[in-house]
Each structure stands twice: as structure tokens, then as C-alpha cells.
Amino acid sequence: MSIKQQRRGTGSATISDVARLAGFSPMTVSRVINGGGNVKESTRDAINAAIKELNYSPNPAARSLAGVEPIRIGLLYSNPSAAYLSEVLVGSLDRASRIDVQLVVARCEPPENYREAAEHLLERGVHGLILTSPLCDLQEVVDVVTEGDQPVVALAGGKPSDDLITINVDDFEAAHAMTKHLIGLGHRRIGFIIGSPIQAASGRRLEGYRAALAEAGIPADEKLIEQGHFTYRSGLAAADKLMDLAVPPTAVFASNDDMAAAVVAVAHRRGLDVPNDLTVCGFDDTAFASSIWPELTTIRQPIAEMARTAVDMLTDEILAHRAGKSLPREHRIAAFELIKRQSDAPPKNSR
Amino acid sequence: MSIKQQRRGTGSATISDVARLAGFSPMTVSRVINGGGNVKESTRDAINAAIKELNYSPNPAARSLAGVEPIRIGLLYSNPSAAYLSEVLVGSLDRASRIDVQLVVARCEPPENYREAAEHLLERGVHGLILTSPLCDLQEVVDVVTEGDQPVVALAGGKPSDDLITINVDDFEAAHAMTKHLIGLGHRRIGFIIGSPIQAASGRRLEGYRAALAEAGIPADEKLIEQGHFTYRSGLAAADKLMDLAVPPTAVFASNDDMAAAVVAVAHRRGLDVPNDLTVCGFDDTAFASSIWPELTTIRQPIAEMARTAVDMLTDEILAHRAGKSLPREHRIAAFELIKRQSDAPPKNSR
DNA sequence: TTTGTAAAAGTTAGCGCTAACATGCACGCA
DNA sequence: TGCGTGCATGTTAGCGCTAACTTTTACAAA
Question: Residue A83's pLDDT is what?
């Protein structure tokens, strides 16, 4: 007796296996998978059960060969805050390749060419877009990309709205937690450097800071709050002003790492030791945070994870759209993490 | 008369179109494409001509469906010098997706888990590996990944050898050019901070520096040369030593941007203006270079382009390997660029 | 000339999936 | 009873490619 050798095949389950197990034809299975209509509820359930049992997932090559247009997602970035970008890329690529979605990455530098870059992507036929920070906070950019009817995800930024799916950490809670951490160390005069006013997160971070102070019963001192623009240079200026105060802060919480690094630079220039004379902490956990010395205590956003989520959500939207349905725009909140490094310590006088 | 509507199909040429045009069967075309043997020279030429004329390229989905194992390339990185990483990713992904090669990205942090990470990739069935800096300079890592018979490309680092394909800028020429630039500005006492001794590029950069000085007839002063480790912290120490010299340098050329940033920090701490009191320049053009102030004059390696090349070379190797042939290990040199920003100026006394 | 043999080419079938069409069936209405 | 109507499912064929097998051709040895 000869066992017929399978000539090819990956060994994993096929749509026919599922069909056989469920007792229907492959076509019906296909309909269930692709959200097609006209399938009885009980049939759908039986097929889904079979899919689960066989741990089946459709072969993307066969699918695309059979004429289904593969899902393409555009990723628009600018301002290579490089650590951020690489996390975005690693996360989104990882997920995209796993679920066989094409990712088209494009750089754009507002205000010059954002329109062009966006149109370029749309021409390439993308079915959805991911907008990374700080693009999501530029209203013109958002307007351009939401003109069409492709779904758009704003990653770490952007105002939740009906046009935009957003994925963010809770900036308020994160800033609140960091401020509370500083208060816990014994600090009472805590300087704050606000981020760029055009980014929505800046305001939320400021409020988190204020709220933590208020909760601890520490009176707000507006002189301790300086405006910055998320740049190193703006951090230098803000830090100088803070350190020139009659009673300077014992800790400075900057709204991002670039500005925090600038605070460290200013402190050093003035002969202050970080963290013993001045505690400094940042936000974002970019490469900066761990490449300067001392390394910064900061807030980490799970960017890679958020990027993965972005790809998933877009894909769901696109599939729903293809099936003629429509999903409500979701607004996800991801969990942040307070990364404690070497730039924070109790204030001097409290020891 | 009814024109039969094509139900599906992408519209682009298929292997049958090529076969028809060339006057052979699709199978023979397939053989030509896949480097199979037993095709007459004249046939091969005719088919290649037809391929060119129709601008044909095989449909990857159909190919993979027909059972050809898709090419998978592993990319190993560590030490997220993030700008570098993002360039590597953008470049390699761009090319990989265009030629339909799968890229499997993995992080590894020697000395803990490099073996594990490498083995993990190999288990995932990658057919070739890209090793990014600084991994390519760790002999243990290189040993592990070259154990098998997959081809390995060292990107921006590594010693050219029979085991390793390398892609580098000419570190000697680049350091030479930068030093010459400084001499051209009028500097005569130029400090140099050497990179990590374990990376081969460090030595080549030092030699470039020495050669440029020698050419200009400037006597070498060993006190102006300090050892560093490519880290910010090592840059701080080296800069302090240089600035403590009886006759300190008027310019410092650090072997990477992190150390150059540290030199700027030390200068500021000592009340020196950059570039008016001290010229500082770096190497690599990482994010650091343009996020601190003043922005660094530095050497840019075309990392994205080099990454693209890496993917191409590996793919060629893998295809050659599959066809039973073997290509010699190549060692490519890419063109660097001297990026002039705001951290260099003529020395004070020369004005 | 016949035959053997290897090189060069062609044929067949099938990878897994889905579009288009076909069918079956229940239900309501004339 | 017959007949449309619409839902639920099945059948057929083909997407583009290549593995495995078969056939043809070229050419040398018998």
C-alpha cells in the first residue's frame, strides 16, 4: 500500500480542511472569513468553531493570487526623533508582516511637502494611514489626509475626533505620576517646562503636573512653569529662566527628553550636580534619555505596542469598509511606564 | 462581437506573455528566471530580451503559492543609536518590500543574549543575515552567525574577510576629509577622540586624522589624542583632559556624535562658546548631531542606501546559493558626506 | 542506418483562494 | 397549483507560477 506523498503544501490547514470539518463548502467558509453577507448564524458559528479548532488562517499568497487586493497602509513620519521612529517602525512592521499587510513608509516635512507626501501615498493606493507625532497635531496635515475616506490613525498625538482614530498614553495621568514621584522624593519646588503649544499632549501633561501639586497641597507657583517647544534649544532657555529665579526649583520636569537634556546641560554649566543639586526628569524615553549622562528618569510610552495596535485597528477598519460595514472611530489609551534612572534624587535640604 | 472581459488579473505581464513573445513555453521561462540549468544560451537570451521588453517581473504571490520558499533575511541590531537604526530600517525595508523579501528584525544585546538572538533568527529560517554596527565588530557575534552557511553582511563595521560581506564608508578618507576641513579653517591644534578600540573603524578614523595632519606639515602631538568608547560619558572625560592641557586645542574632532556632544557640554560648562571658542565636530550624523545646540558639523554615512545595498547583495547571494552557484564575498565602499553645520569656525587667534 | 543518451523543451496538475454563476429551498401571492 | 422572490449554499474555473513528469531534439557511437 502506498501512501501518496503530498508534493507541496505547507502542512497547515487550508480552507478545505475547515470546510470539511464544518460540513460546508469552501466557498461558504470564504464568505464567513471575508464578512460576506447571506450566511446563516448557525453556519457562521459552526465555521468559526472549525477555524478555531484547526487554528486556521488564510494563506495570503493564495488570497492575493485569487484577486483580492492586498491591504496597504501608509505610514507618514517627520522629525526623526529617531528612537521614536524606530519603535514605530519596528512595531508596525512586525505586525504588518505577521498579518500580511503592506506598509508604505514615507517621510514628510511640514510645512513644505506634507500635502505632496500624503498625496503620494494615496496615489500609491493605500487604504489607510498612520500619522505619527508630531504630524497628528498639525491641523493642515490632518485635514489633508482625512479628505478622502480612508481611515486615519493618529499615533501618540492628535485630538480624538470623528475623523481620527487615536492611540495615546494618558498624558495627564503620566505627568501626574511623575510629579507625584518627585513629590514623594521630597521636592516642593518643582519646575515644569511645557511642550509645544501646538501639540495637544502638552496641555494634558501640564494639567497632570498641576493636579498632582494640588493634591499634595503644594501651592501652584506660576513662575516655576516655563513655555518650551519640545526642542533642545527651547529647553536651554527655559532652564536658564528657572535657574535664575530667586528661589530656584529643586527639581525640573520637562515635557520631553530633549528639553530635559537641555536642563541637565544648563545645570552642569552652572556647576550644579544632577541629581544631587537638581533633579531632572523628562518624558518619552527617547534615545536621548539614555545616551546622556546622567541617564534620565522619564516616562516611557509603549510606542512599539501602540504602533502594532494602530496597524490592527486600521486593518479592521479597512476590512469592515470592504465588507460594507462601518466601525465607529475608536480612541485607545495605552499604559505608560515611569522609568527610573539616575537623574532624580531627594532635594538636598531634606537630607 | 463580444470582447471577453478579463475577470481578474493585475494587468501586468505574466510568464505566459513572456513565453508567447519569446516563442517558448512558460516552463522554460521559469527555468531562465530561476537560474535552472539545461537552457540553450540562445534561448536564454531570447527570453531575457522578452522579459525586458514586457518589463516582466514574477508575481510573488503566485510563486509562493507554487511552493517556492520566500527569501527571508534577518536583521540583527543592538544599542539603539536610534537615528542609525531608523535609517537602517527604512532603507532595508524599502528594498525588501520592493523585491518581495521578508525581513525579520531582532534586537540583541551582547554579551547577554546575542547567541540566543542569532539562533532565534536562524530557527525562524532566515537565509541570510544583516549585522549592524556595533554587532559586526564583536568577534563572538560574528563567529556565531557565520557558523552556519548563510551569507552575512556587516553594515557599517566589521573586518572584511572571507566569511563576511562588508559595506562601509571609507573611514580613513572621511576622517581625513574632516581633519583637512578643520585645517582649512585655520586650526593647528586639533584634538582627536578615538572611538571604541574594539571597533575596527576607530583605528581607520584615527589614521585618517593623522594622515591629514602629516600632509599639512603639522607635527603630531600625542597629548591631543584621547581614547574614548563612543559613549557620551567617555566623551566627557576625554574632553576634560583635552581642555585641561597647558595649550588646549582650538578644535576637537570626536570619532562619533555622542562624544562630540559631550565635548560641547564640557565646553559650555567651562564657559566656552562653540564654535567661537572651540570648534567641535563629530562623525555619523546621528539624531544627536542635529538635536543639540549648536548642531554638529559631522560626517554622514549614507546608511539607508547602504542598507538597501545589503538587502540586494544578500538576495543575490541567496539566489545564487539556491541555484547551486557561489558568489565571492564582496566588500563595498559607500560615499560619505561632510555635513557642515554650526559647530565649526576658524580659531579665534587667526581672525 | 539504427540506436542510445543527454540536453532542451513541453505538458500536466495543483498550490489555496475567491469571483461569477448556478442551484436549492422556503415563503408568499395570484 | 404554479410562479416569482430572495436568501443560503454549492460548483466551476482560474489567478500566475513551478514540481514532476514526458516528449522532442541533437548528436555520437554502434
Answer: 64
Note whether A82 contacts B268, CB cutoff 8 Å. no
Q: Dmax over Cα atoms in chain A, in whole Å?
A: 96
Q: Inform me whether the pLDDT recorded for B152 exceeds 60.
A: yes
- Which H/E stretch holds residue A338? strand A337-339
Contact, B3 CB vs strand C, < 7 Å: no
Cell of A68: 483580492
- To the nearest 10 degrees (0 to 180), the angle between helices A114-123 and A139-147 is 20
Cα–Cα distance for residue pair B200/B282, rounded to 1 Å: 17
**Is the shortest CB-to-strand distance from A71 to strand C under 7 Å?**
no
pLDDT surpasses 80 at B109: no
Strand partners, B105: B75
Helices marked H in chain B: 15-22, 26-33, 41-54, 60-65, 82-98, 114-123, 139-147, 171-185, 200-215, 232-243, 257-269, 287-291, 303-322
Least confident of A45-59, B34-48, B298-312: B34-48
Which amino acid appears at position B45 of this protein?
Answer: D
Element (H, E) at A304: helix A303-322
CB A9 within 7 Å, strand C: yes
| Rounded-to-integer distance, Cα B322 and Cα B71, Å | 10
Give how far A95 is from chain B: nearest CA, Å. Answer: 11
**What pLDDT, on a 0 to 100 scale, did the predictor assign at position A51?**
92
Strand-strand pairing, A337-339 and A152-155:
unpaired
Contacts of A63 in chain B (CB under 8 A): 61
Q: Which nucleotide is nearest to B66 (CA to C1')?
A: C15
Question: Which domains, from first to last, does chain A contain?
Answer: 15-65 (1.10.260.40), 72-169+303-335 (3.40.50.2300), 171-300+338-350 (3.40.50.2300)
Comparing alpha-carbon positions, the chain B residue that sits nearest to A68 is B8
A236: closest chain B residue by CA: B293
DSSP A133-198: TTGGG-HHHHHHHHHSSS-EEEES-S---SSEEEEEE-HHHHHHHHHHHHHHHT--SEEEEE--TT
Return the pLDDT at B21: 92
